[in-house]
Design goal:
The protein has 222 residues and is of the alpha/beta class. Helix content is 42%, strand content 19%. The chain is built from 9 helices and 8 strands. Bound molecules: pyridoxal-5'-phosphate. The site of pyridoxal-5'-phosphate has 13 residues, from strand 8 and helix 9.
């Protein structure tokens, strides 16, 4: 029956898909994070190494920390003992170092590959073709202390809905290509991290599984 096939293949997966909120707490005080934690939230995102290390030392061990910014290889060792997710992998050098430091700490770290789709050239990551080439030639099983969980991207900082949605579509299409061609036997490759305070609704509608939201929760950063 065509209608039930449509329900099972198209509607049901959307209904069951849940979107995780990463509360972006960069520049916010330990007390403000504690307040959100007390309300029951556990996943927080930061993008400066020194800041996340200091906050981790002062906050409950149950927090699931996400490193969402550009990460330099020489700083991986400072976060490897506690970080749960690293969102912005943009080089093989970084993967090698994360694997090494995760192994030293006897841990497995969740990682996302960063795709660059925005207009701003200051944003890091591979463009679509570079990312596909990289993923096709890389032997990820050489990194047993890393779990590649999906991809991450940022839309252009703009209220041009059509443009930002088309960037999100490009992220999703790249994810689907990688899922089908590179990670087809890896059930852990599931996540699309996209969407921030200004564009999270569009991101969810386009297929995001993780939104990273800061200023919409805490107010504008100083
Ligand atoms: C700061 C930041 C966010 C959150 O930005 P808001 O606009 O405050 O929601 C999300 N992702 C990354 C990579 C960031 O650096």
């Amino acid at each position: 029956m065509p209608s039930s096939k449509y329900f099972l293949d198209t509607i049901l997966p959307e209904l069951l898909r849940n979107v995780q909120l990463i509360v972006v707490s960069k520049t916010q005080s330990v007390a403000s994070i504690q307040e959100v934690y007390n309300a029951g939230h556990r996943a927080f995102g930061e993008n400066y190494v020194q800041e996340i290390v200091e906050k981790n030392a002062q906050l409950p061990k149950e927090i699931e920390w996400h490193f969402i910014g550009h990460l330099q290889s020489n700083k991986v060792k400072f976060i490897a003992p506690f970080i749960s997710w690293i969102h912005a992998i943009d080089s093989e050098k970084l993967l090698i170092e994360i694997n090494k430091q995760a192994a030293k700490n006897n841990r497995c770290i969740n990682c996302l590959l960063q795709i660059h789709v925005a207009q701003e050239d200051s944003k890091f990551g591979w463009d679509r073709n570079e990312l596909i080439d990289f993923a096709e030639k890389t032997n990820f099983s050489a990194y047993p202390n890393i779990s590649i969980r999906g991809i991450m991207g940022m839309g252009t900082f703009s209220d041009d809905e059509k443009m930002v949605r088309s960037e999100f579509k490009e992220i999703v299409s790249c994810f689907k290509h990688l899922k089908k061609n590179v990670f087809k036997n890896d059930p852990r490759f599931l996540e699309i991290s996209m969407g921030m305070s200004g564009d999270w609704k569009w991101a969810i509608e386009e297929g995001s599984t993780m939104v990273r939201i800061g200023s919409a929760i805490f107010g504008a950063r100083k």
